[in-house]
UniProtKB/TrEMBL annotation:
Organism: Blastopirellula marina
Membrane-spanning intervals of the chain: none
Residue stretches making up the Circularly permuted ATP-grasp type domain: 64-439
Coiled coil, from the record: none
UniProt-recorded name of the protein: Circularly permuted ATP-grasp type 2 domain-containing protein
Organism classification: Bacteria, Pseudomonadati, Planctomycetota, Planctomycetia, Pirellulales
InterPro entries listed in its UniProt record: ATP-dep_Glu-Cys_Ligase-2, CP_ATPgrasp_2, UCP005522
A Pfam family reported for this protein in Swiss-Prot or TrEMBL: CP_ATPgrasp_2
Highest taxon, organism lineage: Bacteria
Length: 461
């Protein structure tokens, strides 16, 4: 919010002036009112393994994070470029595998990825689109540059909080909101529905769309129900669907009703026990046969998780160069892959300064933040890396940018990241802003809600 000299940046001056005119009691009252609204609206998430109860609200900080329009245009352009290249990569991996044959990415890196799905080889999703909804995590370093921290293409969550946060902000600072000329986010659900309808077989005039959820105990169930409600489509679970003659139907009180497009919020492993995990009780037996026959569209397409692998992530700039003959607009965080002997030695020697991450964990779990860890933890991760080098990457510890947060009766800086959401349908749509996640624990770099993080509204002005 502030330049190194201590003065508020141009795009934050109105917000700064507005805060100056409020008392700390005013801010506290508005924060409390916003949190009460979240509880009343049911804006919650579930935390697995919590003893004191499963549901809680994500702490919401009412001070918005503001991004200048010109900078956002550059970010948006970089995200579109990245999604196009990732989509081409996924399609290539499940077809000709040219990028492997040309040695741009080592074949063993893809073959050994736990998210690579041999069952998806030869699949042809509608219009050649695999990654319909993506949440790309960005961080800003001390140099002011935005970097891509990771890609989320399987079942990216958090957009419902973006939309609800915006509604709360309009109630909290109505005058300020209008004065800032903030770009709207309200059309996300209509954009999503348009993209889903675009996937339906061409001969169907009015496609039947459904959101497939694992059920009420899933951590993002609020989002599943919210998006279904906002799009005006059915929210279903696996037990609500049945496959007959390679077509998918929903069970209703009036009998079976055909379904043409499914926005799935279930991982590949669980979507079809006949194709993936045989013990899955969440999916729909036979849905992959219906998908191969072209009778159902799935978003995101099965197999997209290969691009979520953090080792694959290290090669995305090479993908962009290979498929598009362009340099990456949004750079990766510098990344060391531990399967490479030379890079692994460097990581082990410098582990006290590194962030070490497993290839397929999410939610901030299973990682080491070297500067904050003990020597015992360093030693433990050295052994983990040596035992399974393919499973780990390492990155230098970034000086993540901070934003002001209300703490008790005053403001303090807390580290933030940003998750913009991208919809790939007839065109590519980038939601202006996205979810700013905040590490509410002082000094923490972990912004995930499951580990005490909160969120902010993100204003593109």
């Amino acid at each position: 919010m502030f330049s190194p000299g201590g003065s508020p940046r141009i795009n934050c001056q109105l917000l700064y002036k507005h805060i100056q005119e409020l008392t700390s009691n005013d801010l506290r009252k508005r924060k409390t009112a916003a949190e009460r609204s979240m509880i009343r609206l049911g804006i919650t998430f579930n935390v697995y393994g919590e003893q004191e109860g499963t549901e809680r609200i994500i702490p919401f900080d009412i001070l918005p994070r503001i991004i200048q329009g010109e900078q956002w245009s550059w970010i948006s352009k970089g995200l579109k470029q990245r999604i196009v290249a990732l989509n081409m990569f996924i399609d290539d991996i499940y077809h000709d595998q040219k990028i492997l044959k040309d040695g741009v990415i080592p074949e063993h890196v893809v073959r050994s990825a736990s998210s690579f799905r041999p069952q998806c080889v030869g699949l042809n999703p509608p219009h050649g689109i695999w990654c319909h909804i993506t949440g790309t995590d960005l961080v800003r370093d001390g140099d002011g540059q935005f970097y891509v921290l990771e890609d989320n293409l399987r079942c990216p969550s958090g957009v419902s909080y973006v939309l609800q946060n915006r509604q709360l902000m309009k109630q909290t600072f109505p005058g300020l909101f209008e004065a800032q000329f903030v770009r709207p986010v309200d059309d996300y659900c209509s954009q999503l529905l348009d993209a889903l309808n675009y996937l339906a077989p061409e001969h169907i005039e009015k496609p039947q769309v459904a959101v497939l959820s694992p059920g009420i105990y899933n951590s993002a169930y609020f989002e599943h129900s919210f998006l279904a409600q906002q799009m005006g489509v059915e929210l279903v679970e696996g037990r609500d669907l049945v496959v007959r003659d390679r077509r998918v139907y929903a069970r209703t009180t009036k009998g079976l009703r055909s379904v043409d497009v499914i926005y799935r919020r279930i991982d590949d492993d669980f979507i079809d026990p006949q194709a993936f995990r045989k013990d899955s009780m969440l999916g729909v037996p036979g849905i992959m046969d219906a998908y191969r026959a072209g009778n159902i569209a799935l978003a995101n397409a099965p197999g997209t998780g290969i691009a979520d692998d953090k080792v694959i992530y290290a090669y995305v700039p090479d993908m962009i160069k290979y498929y598009l003959s362009e340099d990456a607009i949004l750079p990766n965080v510098p990344t060391y892959v531990c399967w490479d002997d030379k890079q692994r030695d460097h990581v082990i020697k410098n582990i006290a300064d590194m962030v070490v991450k497993p290839a397929n964990e999410s939610g901030g779990y299973g990682m080491l933040i070297g500067p904050r860890a003990s020597k015992e933890e360093h030693a433990k991760f050295v052994e983990l890396i040596k035992a399974n080098p393919r499973n780990y990457i390492a990155q230098p510890t970034l000086s993540l940018s901070r934003a002001p947060v209300i703490i008790d009766d005053h403001l303090e800086g807390r580290h933030v990241d940003l998750r913009p959401f991208i919809i790939y349908g007839r065109d590519i749509y980038v939601l202006p802003g996205g979810l700013t996640r905040v590490a509410l624990r002082k000094g923490s770099l972990v912004v995930n809600s499951s580990q005490g993080g909160g969120s902010k509204d993100t204003w593109v002005v």
